[in-house]
Amino acid sequence: MSSNTDVSLSSYDEDQGSKLIRKAKEAPFVPIGMAGFAAIVAYGLYKLKSRGNTKMSVHLIHMRVAAQGFVVGAMTLGMGYSMYREFWAKPKP
């Protein structure tokens, strides 16, 4: 019995950076959503000091809603973009 050891495992050979770049090319709005989420969280932490007399819980709820809204918007745009690419931008046979 001989085992075939020439099996190509190219998906296991790529490092984290090249995998992230490949995935970002396949779905470009995912990194945009992640970056927007991080930006909103950073802005919320920065504004935490100068929130005035607003309660902490209200401030955190507003930041959570803003971050979730940005991510859902990016996902919606990404889905629309992928639908456009798949159905309308395809070359006709």
UniProtKB/TrEMBL annotation:
Keywords: Membrane, Transmembrane, Transmembrane helix. InterPro entries: Hypoxia_induced_domain, RCF1. Residues 1-93 form the HIG1 domain. GO terms for cellular component: mitochondrial membrane. The chain crosses the membrane at residues 27-46, 66-84. One of its GO terms (biological process) is mitochondrial respirasome assembly. It is found in: Mitochondrion membrane. Its main location: mitochondrion. This is HIG1 domain family member 1A, mitochondrial. It comes from Octodon degus. The gene is Higd1a.
